[in-house]
Amino acid sequence: MRILSLALRDLWFEKLLSLCTVAAVAAVLAPLLLLFSLRTGVLSELERQLTENPAHLEIIMGANYRLDSAFIEDLKRDPATGFVVPLTRSLNVTCDLRSSKAVVRSAMAVPTAEGDPLLKAAGFEDLGKEQALYVSAALAEKLKVSAGESLTLYVSRTSGGKIENGRASFTVKGVLPAALLAQDRFLIPFESVVAMEDFRDGYEPLPFSDGSYLNSARTTFAKVRLYAKDIYSVEPLVTRLQKDYRIISSLSEIEDVKAVTYVLNLIFEVVAAVTVTGGLLTLMGLMLSSLMRKVKSFALLRLMGVTGLKLHALVLCENLLLALTGLTLATLLCVGGSAVFNAVFATHLAGKALSYLSVSHWALFALVTVLFVTLLSVLCTRYRFLKAQVSDILRMEG
Q1: Nearest to 356 by CA among 345, 347, 348
Q2: What does the alpha-carbon distance between residue 51 and residue 55 come to, in Å, rounded to a whole number?
Q3: Sheet containing strand 81-87, strands side by side
Q4: Contact call for residues 198 and 205 (beta carbons, < 8 A)
Q5: With b meaning 16 or more CB within 10 Å and e meaning fewer, what string describes 345-357?
Q6: pLDDT tens figures, 29-61
Q7: Which of 175, 227, 172, 184 is nearest to 53 (CA)?
Q8: 237 and 81 in contact (C-beta within 8 Å)?
Q9: How far apart are CA 327 and CA 374, in angstroms?
């Protein structure tokens, strides 16, 4: 506490030099903090747009194939695979939907299973084996339904020259936004989609019939509904599949974002390196200038019995106080600059922050500042006077 009190008194006595040092630290750190906050916000927004929209992770087979269960199981085991479910046919599986208020013809059924990325993005739970479904916003509007209501699915086939209808009642579990599920589509358990196809093929599957005649011969599927685990897994999956299949993916968009990320990172690293180097040189010059002004005072303190270790602690305490004050001022300037950026671009980013730093970022900057200042303080102090004899210092100053 005595060293801290002495450091505060000395800084107040040299208040003009102290203010210059604080201003120098803030001038170095404020642009660096603001640049880093912009980098964090821009890159996070780019990655969020890619990762939060499952469409960028989807890999579509562009033709009809005969995929067996061994291929599908092997695809599920691929570490790059995030979600896969078989598709019974290359074209959309359709049926008619009836609510208590309206009817929609030829709505498209999309099979779902555990871990469906569309449901994860919407914050909905998996359907499991329930006789339930999720509808698109467009379909919900046409049917005038909401979560909790019931829909009747009608599947038609022609048998013996007559049209037969299989029907089953399903509960609406939720409505998916248009960004996730467009047009007249609905998500339904994979088993229900298979049952719809089997009914059309002349079988009697539940829940569209009485279950008296089931299809046990289905061994292949036309396609798969496939999503990569993340944006970095799209390329390995595409590379694997495009050798034997016609593939449609968002790989080019992802590569564009990766390129932008690389460029922004490189720009930041170069600017940061130049700024930090200039800041360290400036800070070192200020420290040496301050020590030169105080060298006689410190020599007298040593004559009074103050050890070199305590003098190190005194100089370090002063420099840390100046650096942390400068960091605080830089933080205020950075927060102000970020607020300006976020306010200006709020309308273009739907209210999302363009410039921000997390608590861990602030803590990292504070830690790095303390480490650099400690190192510079020790080096400058030893270089300037602690290695010299007290008599030499007094004679030099006299």
Answers
A1: 345
A2: 9
A3: 81-87, 223-228, 58-61, 247-248
A4: yes
A5: eeeeeeeebbbbb
A6: 888 888 888 877 777 777 777 777 888 899 998
A7: 227
A8: yes
A9: 15
Which residues on neighbouring strands pair with residue 189, listed in sequence order?
Answer: 112
Is residue 239 a contact partner of residue 81, using CB atoms and an 8 Å limit?
no
Alpha-carbon gap, residue 241 to 244, rounded angstroms = 6
The pLDDT of residue 110: 93
User: The tokens of 303 are what?
Assistant: 């004559």
Collapsing DSSP to helix, strand or coil, 221 comes out as strand
Strands 132-136, 185-189: parallel, antiparallel or unpaired by DSSP? antiparallel
Given a contact cutoff of 8 angstroms between Cβ atoms, the answer to whether 107 and 155 are in contact is: no
pLDDT score of 81 more than 60: yes
pLDDT of amino acid 90: 63
What's the CA gap between 71 and 68, in Å, rounded? 6
What is the arithmetic mean of pLDDT over 265-280? 82
Separation CA 100–CA 172 (nearest Å): 13
Give whole-number Cα distances, 339 to 10, 332, 353, 355, in Å. 36, 11, 9, 8
Question: Measuring CA to CA, which residue among 288, 370, 260, 386 is closest to residue 325?
Answer: 370
Residue 135: both structure tokens together = 């509808």
CB distance 310 to 12 below 8 Å:
no
Question: Token match 């780019």: residue?
Answer: 46
69 versus 393: the higher-pLDDT residue is 69
26 pLDDT above the threshold of 80 = yes
Q: What is the rounded distance in angstroms from the CA atom of residue 71 to the CA atom of residue 66?
A: 10
| Site of tokens 């562009």 | 62
Return the half-sphere exposure (C-beta side, CA atoms, 13 A cut-off) of residue 251.
14
Q: Measured between alpha carbons, how far apart are the two ends of the chain, in Å?
A: 32
d(CA 134, CA 147): 8
Give the model confidence (pLDDT) of 103-159 as tens digits.
999 999 999 999 999 999 889 999 988 899 999 999 999 999 999 999 999 999 888
Residue pair 99/144 in contact by the 8 Å Cβ criterion: yes
The answer to whether 287 and 319 have CB atoms below 8 angstroms apart is yes
Positive or negative torsion for Cα 325, 328, 330, 333? negative
What is the H or E stretch that residue 163 is in? strand 162-176
